[in-house]
Specification:
Chain lengths: 508, 154
Amino acid sequence: MIEGILTGLGTALSLQNLFMVVSGCLVGTLIGMLPGLGPMSIIAIMIPVAIKIGDPSSALILLAGVYYGAIFGGSTSSILINAPGVAGTVATSFDGYPMAKAGKAGKALTIAAVSSFVGGTVGAILLMGFAPLLASFALLFHSAEYFALMVVGLSAIAAFAGTGQVVKALLMTVVGLMLATVGESALFNAPRFTMGISDLQSGIGFITLAMALFALPEALFLVLDPKRSGRDAGVSSEIKDLRITRAEAREIAPVIGRQSIQGFLIGVMPGAGATLASFLGYAVERNIAKGKDQEAFGKGSIKGLAAPETANNAACTGSFVPLLTLGIPGSGTTAILLGALIALNVSPGPRLMIDNPEVFWAVIVSMYLGNVVLLILNLPLIPYIAKLLAVPRNYLIPFILFFTLMGSYIGQNNATELLILVGLGIGATILRFADYPLAPLLIGFILGGMMENNFARAVNLTDGVSFMWERPMTLSLLCVGLILIILPIYRQRQLWASARRQGIADGD
Amino acid sequence: MSLNRCIALFFLVMSLVYGLAAFNYPLLPFERNMSFLPNTMPMVLSVLGIVLSTFILLSKPALKNPQEEVTTYDRVHIIQAVLLLLAMVLFALALRPFGFIVATSIFLIATGFILGERKLHIMIPIAGFSAFGIWYLVQEVLGIFMRPWPGFIS
């Protein structure tokens, strides 16, 4: 491991890669702060830049920097204008915004930055221990286990979709898998399901799909509901006194410690991600707190701010574990990173540590550097960066729409891609109105090709599907996948039944 | 019928059509004896799609929380959103014939106008400079070719 860390240090501390970390964090913070552009959109826009860089280590370091920066930027807009740029920072606004309203915006931003720093750093240390262990175990996997693992990953993503959403999430996953079958495939000789449209021969671009599913609906919701952009809040100009006292530091230290570990573990689970980690972190700390401390939650409690901030950053780092060791993205953002890596000819998975150790370790080392950059560079700059929040909505939305279009256009240089983007974006907006989760669709789409390849290889090797019950590890993984689907559906039906009984009783 | 069920019905029809296309997929002669065919996974997916969308269609709707806020949107904002989508389609169609700088400038000005911006003396220079700046970054720095001006100029 020490050899690996030294390799990572050698790569990450090169002048070019240090520049990548700093610029990635800055760009991520700047754009992540804007409502309507989350980390997925920003990373998708940055992919052409990453591909242009060519070196996979530098490219991934840049994209990872953008990711942390975007989460940090999202916290800033949550605290200052109560308009979270990123879903993972919604819980931050519960106590961050009341603090800002009480004139403690500077303090709130420092607590957010320190919590993010510790969460991210502890996450990186845990990643260093977890990832090699999991990777060495995953080296035993064959295509059958890989297929089963992907089934588990997709089931987990659906299972974590929330109450009443499991079947919808499963349907979205299947739709994503269907979309992945459009176009040419490495396995077969002719393109499939193109409906005679030549532009679909190479399939649907994953950046286009990501933009259509997340960036475009978010921009449309900003238009439909102007309150989302938080223009009326206007506390951004009052950022002063960034210091926190020793007593406050002592008060939040145990919260940060607990949430670093809890957030990381939630982040490791496929589908859970930063959003769930931050909400759970907030809920757990509120329940642990007693008396006055508990009452302060939601009214500007520093514990209530530190908990989700630590948890979401630790979860972001945790979500790299399944990506780097198994090649399975645990969240929409890591799914886009996976797409970027594939475009750079790097296959994440257990062999990444053997084939491209410099990529693996450089990313881990860059996580420390990214956190340091966010703490010592971005925090003092926040009062200036926050001026961006004063950009009027009439100027902001056209640029958000334009960057959404560009993210999809630059990658393919094809105007038809833009029409597909608008069409899919309208569909995604309708799906959001009906509460259909969209992340499972994107993850299904990205995993679809790999899942089919592994399934085909396993079927060809055993001349049938007997591998599903003949290989113990495959069978156990498939059983886990099945339990992950059945359990939430069963619980959901029980909840509905009891709610209905209650409703009838109330009606009487 | 609720939007939820309309969407489920749409996906049911989509899964049926997809399944039919998969079932009738023209296999090449040598592919017929393979254990895994190009339409194996699509057929499995179409069955899953049919089962899941039927499940949503037939399941009873969840009881609504009476305290849950129902979001309604202003007519003006809905019209703005539709016009913005239209502007995006026109931008896609205009990108090649008009060139990147002209199409982008018009797009930024038009979308700002749709959202209520009337200070054109500010919007036009911002749109022009941004379009040129982004074109320069993409073409000169990233090396991705994008025709800047209409065909008859460049």
